Amino acid sequence: TSKHSPNGVVLSWGKYTNKHTYIIDHRSTASPAWKTVGEIYDNGTYTCPYNKIDFGVVNYFRIRLKNTNLVSYSTSVNGIDPTKPMVALTYDDGPFTSVTDSIVSTLKANGARATFFVVGNRVNSYKNSLKNAFNAGNEIANHTYSHYILTNYNTKTIQSQINQANQAVKNITGKAPTLVRAPGGSINSTVKSAVKYPLIQWSVDTMEWKSRNAKSVVSVVKSNTKDGCIISMHDLYESTAEATKTIVPWLKSQGYQMVTVTELMQIRGYDLKAGEIYYSGYRK
Ligand code: ZN
């Protein structure tokens, strides 16, 4: 696996049984030739410091045994500069083809990514939009199977809502979500103990489901965004797709990197725990 951390990209792999030295090679879309960035003896993990990776592009790593080209492991991560500001845009309640596709293409055109908290019972109807969002590097997360307000249900129903939604996404993208957003942000102690994933809330509420007005969404984002915030929107309304066309280039012009929730929390050193609530990834 590979993940971000405050100090660098953490690579982990399965060790060979005998003692070996592992070589860590790196390349990126900006510097396409493999270059060795480190080596480590008899270990299954290596942290590649951020000064050895390229920001704003995809970075690839391979781990091989010293003096051979036998590759034991390869992975890729998005290059994010931990010293620069970043935000996580989130879109709930989709997918919904006409809106989701437009948002994904705006993100892509600006080198941005977002997190889509999808409703499980919608994903089969909008399979291609989900795949498209996932393939563009966005994070697909869990917003329950039927958009149930979880505080109205018991543990068994809550867990089945989460598991069914995860399975529906996994069937399409091959990857099960690792984050949950409770519909309505409604969480109580039953929900916290039933949900075996981190519960992600938000710190900027655009309220666009209420206003349905692109201009007001843009103005909320412009006046409330700060480094590390998690912005809540919904990929159900044309007005949100329109607002996204303004928000994303604006955030970029302000120097914000638009990253997924998982990337934000890893880089800012938040150790995400099951059943715990998170509102933002502010610097600690
Ligand atoms: Zn919702």
What does this structure look like?
The chain has 8 helices and 15 strands. It is α/β, with parallel strands linked by helices and 284 residues long. Strands 8, 9, 10, 12, 13 and 14 form a 6-stranded parallel sheet that branches. A 4-stranded antiparallel sheet has the order 4-3-6-7, with no helix packed on it. It has a 3-stranded antiparallel sheet with strand order 1-2-5. α1 links the parallel β8 (86-92) and β9. α1 runs parallel beside α2 (127-135) and α1 runs parallel beside α7 (238-253). The structure holds zinc ion. Zinc ion binds at residues 92-93, 143, 147, 183.
What's the SSE blueprint?
Layout: E1 2-4, E2 8-12, E3 21-28, E4 35-41, E5 45-49, E6 58-65, E7 71-78, E8 86-92, H1 97-109, E9 114-118, H2 127-135, E10 139-142, H3 155-173, H4 189-194, E11 199-200, E12 204-205, H5 208-211, H6 214-224, E13 230-234, H7 238-253, E14 257-258, H8 261-267, E15 277-278
Parallel strand pairs: 8-9, 8-13, 8-14, 9-10, 11-15, 12-13
Antiparallel strand pairs: 1-2, 2-5, 3-4, 3-6, 6-7
Helix pairs in contact: 1-2, 1-7, 6-7
Bound molecules: zinc ion.
Zinc ion (ZN) binds at residues 92-93, 143, 147, 183.
